[in-house]
Structures are given as C-alpha cells and as structure tokens.
C-alpha cells in the first residue's frame, strides 16, 4: 500500500487490517495522507482500479456511527 499511495504524495501512515487470531489480511486497510489534495488525487486515480486481480475501492474514511452498548442491566 505504501508504494502505491506514495506515488501521490507523503504518507503519515499506512496499515493493512489483519485478523487478530490468524494474522491474515482482512482485505482492507487505511492510509493517512497529510495533504488533502494528495489524498484526493490518490482517491480519484485508484478508486475502482485493479491491483493483482482485485478491484480497489478507495474512499475517504468516515467515523463509525455510534453503536448502542450491548448487554442487559448495569452495575449498581
């Protein structure tokens, strides 16, 4: 990922998300680019492109919606 996204500018970080038990890639990751214009260029160029026979989906990450906490009652 660093090589591909690095063609568009500086990377603050790049991480492939892996299964915590098997260590296998989950098929997605996150790249942080300090420059919005570099990030936009990478998204435009790489979204729906092909990498090693797999179609890439590249977009801006958005925060997860807050999920209600599970479980029943609380501690008192």
Automatic annotation (TrEMBL):
Residues 53-76 are annotated as: Disordered. GO terms for molecular function: RNA binding. Residues 1-63 form the RRM domain. PROSITE patterns: RRM (PS50102). SMART domains: RRM. InterPro entries: Nucleotide-bd_a/b_plait_sf (IPR012677), RBD_domain_sf (IPR035979), RRM_dom (IPR000504), SLIRP/GR-RBP-like (IPR052462). Keywords: RNA-binding. This is RNA-binding protein. It comes from Imhoffiella purpurea. The lineage of its organism: Bacteria, Pseudomonadati, Pseudomonadota, Gammaproteobacteria, Chromatiales.
């Amino acid at each position: 990922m660093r090589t591909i996204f690095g063609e568009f500018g500086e990377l603050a970080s790049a991480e492939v998300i892996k299964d915590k038990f098997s260590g296998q890639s989950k098929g997605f990751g996150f790249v942080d680019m300090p420059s919005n214009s570099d990030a936009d260029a990478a998204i435009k160029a790489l979204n729906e492109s092909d990498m090693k026979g797999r179609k890439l989906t590249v977009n801006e990450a958005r925060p997860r919606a807050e999920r209600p906490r599970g479980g029943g009652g609380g501690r008192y």
